[in-house]
Amino acid sequence: MNRRELLGVLGTTAAGLTAITGGGARAQEAQGPEHKHHPFHPKRGHHTEEQQECAETCACCMHECEDGFHYCLRQARQSGKVEYARAAHLCIDCAEVCGTAAKLVASGSHLLVHICAACAEACDDCLAVCEPLKDPEMKLVIESLRKCAQ
């Protein structure tokens, strides 16, 4: 995702919030009072700043994981080390999940609970493989994974 796409994703936050404060409230009423709310749900008052920060964190992690993928792929080809090939595979998968999470969070999707859980799990799995590499080139990837997994 390039800068223009990232700005588009983050720019949809305002449109998504408008949509969920109107249409989202009606959807919640239809689900009934037993429906559990996610912390980003507009009725709880945590939708603007938290949601944007989460979308930005996911987008940043996506970019770092893409960079990590390219680096690990080069290392796997040059050194033949299986752990770099595994890290490359997890980095690109994690980048996909984080990118999807960034888009859905920015749009205010009602699937936030599910995508955020999947994103955190993907980041944890990727971290478990990247951290043991102890490669200084992976420092930013690891930091981004930690932040996104929270």
Structure description:
- The chain is mostly helical and 150 residues long.
- The chain is elongated.
- It is built from five helices and no strands.
- Mean pLDDT is 78; it is low at 1-46.
- 35% of the residues are buried.
- The chain has one domain (3-149).
- The protein starts with a helix and ends with a helix.
Which SSEs are present, and which pair or pack?
Blueprint: H1 3-31, H2 49-79, H3 82-107, H4 112-130, H5 139-149
What Rg, in angstroms, do the CA atoms define?
Answer: 17 Å
For the biggest sheet, the summary is: none
Total domain count: 1
Distance between the termini: 22 Å
Q: Which structural class is indicated by helix and strand composition?
A: mainly alpha
| Mean pLDDT level | 78
Strand content: under 5%
Please give the share of residues in helix: over 70%
Shape, per Cα inertia axes: elongated
Q: How many helix segments?
A: 5
| H/E element order | HHHHH
